[in-house]
Each structure stands twice: as C-alpha cells, then as structure tokens.
Amino acid sequence: MLHIDPDSSTPPFEQLRQQITAQIHNGELRPGDRLPTVRRLAGDLGIAPNTVARAYRELERSGLLDGRGRAGTFVAGDDAEHTAKAAALSYAQQARALGLDPAEALQLVRRALEG
C-alpha cells in the first residue's frame, strides 16, 4: 500500500518513487504488474496528478517501469532482467555515494564478472 506523509521533508513524488522502488525490489510488485493510472493513484493519495506522473517518469527512466501509453504503466522486464537492473541501479547509487569515479566503478564490475 502506498501512502504520502504530508509532514515529511521528502517531496511527495520522491516518497512515491521510493515506495514503488521498494515494492519492486522486495517482490510485492512483479514484472508485468500494472500500476494504477496517474489520476486514480493521485486521487487515492490526495496528491496532484503531476506528482504521480513525475514519479512514474523517473521510474521509467531508471528502467523499473514501462509506460505503454493508453495501455497503462507496468513493472518492467522479466525476472532476470528486472533483478539485474535493480542490482545495477543499487550499485550505481552506492558507487556515487562512495565517491567512486564511474570508470573505477565499471572496472570493479568487470573484475567481479571475470572472477
């Protein structure tokens, strides 16, 4: 279940993005699952449709969601692809947080894959 904390310092679109990402990573949302429409979710959460649309767009850019126009918005990928994308995204975020240069981060991945 998704919810927005109006008292949080985290913007509503980011709260939503984080919650959907967590639900994908923990398996509550699986590849192929359809998400609510922007308008429906906005109404359910009491937030502006543009807020939901922004969260969905950012999740599409990260590869976690697949927007299919009038057909709706779905959790992207098959299980293997989804798991690999989620791991790559997590690694990229951790590498940035550690201050690693992108070339260094990629070299570490190459070594891990070869070894």
Automatic annotation (TrEMBL):
Keyword Repeat: no
Annotated CDD domains: WHTH_GntR (cd07377)
Key words of the record: DNA-binding, Transcription, Transcription regulation
Superkingdom of origin: Bacteria
SMART domains linked to this entry: HTH_GNTR (SM00345)
InterPro entries noted in UniProt: Tscrpt_reg_HTH_GntR, WH-like_DNA-bd_sf, WH_DNA-bd_sf
Residues annotated as domain HTH gntR-type: 10-78
Protein name per Swiss-Prot or TrEMBL: GntR family transcriptional regulator
Organism: Georgenia halotolerans
